[in-house]
Amino acid sequence: MFEITILASSSSGNSALLRSESATILVDAGLSARQLTERLSQCSVSPSEIGAILITHEHSDHVKGLPQWCKQHGTPVYCNRHTATLLREKMSTHHAWNIFETGSSFSLNAVSVQTFSIPHDAVDPVGFVVREKDYSFGFATDLGYATRLVIDSLQGLDGLLLEANYDEELLQQDSKRPWAVKQRIASRHGHLSNNAAAELLRQLLHEKLQHVALGHLSADCNREALALEAINRVLDATSPLQRWCAGPNQISRTIRLG
Ligand SMILES: [Zn+2]
Ligand SMILES: [Zn+2]
Fold first, then answer.
1. Which residues pair with 219 in a beta bridge?
2. DSSP H or E run through 46
3. Number of domains forming the structure of the chain
4. How far does residue 133's CA lie from ligand 1's centre (Å)?
């Protein structure tokens, strides 16, 4: 068994569940503890089964529920030192911290976790590749652009959660966001546009890649159809690659690799 379910993915909350033969893990905890519990129960997973929570970075859409969750369940948290320093301010009673060096890999039972640095306006943001046996899945959201390291780290995977944050035109037209915010989103430390996601995917295509979930779509500056259109432009018409968007309001379909 090697299964990924995205519990939520958007600019307002992110969390994903990985279930393998040896471990049950959350990647990020950007929903309230109550919402996390509810969405996990839809996957027939109880809070006590979660053996670890991996944290990509400290933005609230990735850690909103973490203090309350850890208060209730004491789940071990895995993050780098700079991220931990910030999280500890709100989690002084939590003691199960497992600090990794950005760029290192570590094991959770039989699951190996490779961490890699991503360019984003957080203190030390990372992406993850998780592997067990022959199965592998990558988490790549919240990145301003695809660095060489990102492209190299995501080669050869079976599946991928890939950020497709905004459509360039919709972002430009958006009247709610001041110019400085638009600049931040589109900057090299902001988020991936649909076209940038498609270009990254083009560089990751290989025979074994079966699933791409597009995530972290902006509610105002993107549409699922636009994100999928951009991706389809880099795929052959006959490509068997499963691609779809993960959203904010409900758990995604489950990606079953093994
Ligand atoms: Zn972020
Ligand atoms: Zn985010």
1. none
2. none
3. 1
4. 30
